[in-house]
Amino acid sequence: MIIKEKIQEQIPRWMERIQRLKKEYSNFVVGEVTIEQILSGIRGVQISISDISYVDPYEGIRLRGYTISQVLSLLPKAKNSRMPLAGGLYHLLLTGELPSQKEAEEVEEIWRCRSEVPQYVWDVICSMPPETHPMTLFSQAIMALQPQSLFARAYLEGVQKSQYWEYYLEDSLNLTAKIPQIAAFIYCWKYKDGKVEPPDPNLDWSASFAQMIGKGSDWEYQELMRLYLVIHSDHEGANVSAHTSHLVSSALSDIYLSSAAGMNGLAGPLHGLANQECIRWLLNVYDHFQRLPSDEELEGYIRNQLSAGYVIPGYGHAVLRVTDPRFTAQMEFAEQFLPQDPLFQLVKQVYRLAPSILGENGKIKNPRPNVDAINGCLQYYYGVREVDFYTVLFGVSRLLGLTAHAIWARALGKPIERPKSLTTQMLEERVGII
Ligand SMILES: CC(=O)SCCNC(=O)CCNC(=O)[C@H](O)C(C)(C)COP(=O)(O)OP(=O)(O)OC[C@H]1O[C@@H](n2cnc3c(N)ncnc32)[C@H](O)[C@@H]1OP(=O)(O)O
Ligand SMILES: O=C([O-])CC(=O)C(=O)O
Model pTM? Predict the structure, then answer.
């Protein structure tokens, strides 16, 4: 397997770099932590390293050093498509190297061969009450696969630490291979007649999700999914889902346990669920006016929401200080394929008006849109209108990033994470108020 060989070959060099930092610079002070940072969600505190991706506040995400537009233009493309193969992206995340067409296809083929989901996973989903949120079902399905973990078994049998990553890699490929089918099953079980189209072996990982939910002849939607599943894959190591899954896997919990944990974080409305919240917000605006509002009406609506204490979903970011390039990539898609769509018009109108209103009170650090401000409008246009499903799509993609971080964490022998917490009194004593 090419990816495995490449990782294997790279490990000694990475280990050497880390050992050197540890040995020669272990007392070097990277930064200070202020009380404000401690009290505001450890914001900006540089606490970990991961070389899979990095978010520059003014440029956005770079996946293994490549910007979103570079990733979209440089990765090998799917058949009859201008969009990348997700298999190529996984190769890039795992090895740091842009794959050839053949290398990207290799990952796609591995996924195809390992995609079968055991019947009992479907039984687990079907045993849940129909009102269960799709993200809960998604997380449960991942957990249901946990008994298949090769790492968990190997650990019990006493596998060497230096080999952990190999089992994480196998588990990750097994999990990611099954994920489009699991998402399609949840969609069809929850909203349709329960019948999932059997996967088409001629399609790539991203398009096959589209095909399994009945969009086998909708080329445009398949293109959208190819775009979507690449651009949501990773956002460095410290966002809620990535950090959660990293933390859990640092205890040597296997990839199923740690990925499900990450998905539970993604399911929060300030993180991935903003996907759902944002489209609900846009639909509410539309319902409220029964048409596209005038600029004045929309400004009034936004101000009312803010003074009632609501957040405007899809706006703001913990790290980014510019418009999210993932938002821009989807804007370009929408401009090409659905320029007249009323919801897209509304997305553009909010983008034109909301940032200056949000910026007025000077509190918000970045009043511009993040990726969630447009995600839903595209799904909605192509007829996937069950808005509480949208975060599952985010999850399908994000599992590529989470698993890549975890494989490399094991490859580099990263330790269990255990920072330190204080009491309020201790802080008060340190600043001298008691
Ligand atoms: C894929 C992703 O996860 S991207 C993020 C998706 N989430 C959303 O879109 C939800 C809406 N946005 C937010 O809630 C926030 O901007 C977050 C969670 C993304 C970032 O949070 P922070 O780093 O704390 O943002 P920031 O430092 O700018 O917040 C400062 C103040 O502005 C407010 N603010 C930030 N974003 C918004 C917003 N979209 N609407 C209204 N107020 C906002 C905060 O609530 C905070 O107010 P407070 O001091 O009264 O509590
Ligand atoms: O980076 C963050 O905190 C949130 C985000 O945009 C993502 O995880 O995609």
Answer: 0.97
Measured between alpha carbons, how far is 395 from 260 in angstroms, rounded to an integer? 10
Name the nearest CA neighbour of 312 among 266, 267, 359: 359
Taking the CA of residue 241 as reference, the ligand 2 atom at the shortest distance is 8
SS3 label, residue 212: helix
Would residue 317 show up in a list of annotated catalytic residues for this protein?
A: yes
Q: Which of 56, 319, 375 to mutate to test the pocket of ligand 2 (most atoms within 8 A of CB)?
A: 319
Say if strands 66-67 and 53-56 run parallel, antiparallel, or are unpaired.
unpaired
What is the predicted pLDDT for the residue at 292? 96
What confidence score (pLDDT) does residue 362 get?
A: 87
For residue 288, the Cα-to-chain-centroid distance in whole angstroms is: 31
Residue whose structure tokens are 């974080």: 265
Domains of the chain and CATH, by start: 274-381 (1.10.230.10)
Can you list the residues of the chain whose pLDDT is less than 70? none
**DSSP structural state of residue 315:** B
The burial class, CB within 10 Å (0-12 / 13-18 / 19+), for 166 is: buried
CB 64 within 8 A of CB 52: yes
User: What CA–CA distance (Å, rounded) separates 202 from 177?
Assistant: 15
| pLDDT value of position 388 | 97
Q: Which residues, listed in sequence order, are joined to residue 60 by a DSSP beta bridge?
A: 56
Per-residue pLDDT tens digits for 93-111: 999 999 999 999 999 999 9
194 Cβ partners below 8 Å, 6+ apart? 188
Instruction: Tell how far CA 387 is from the center of its chain.
Output: 17
pLDDT at 361: 83
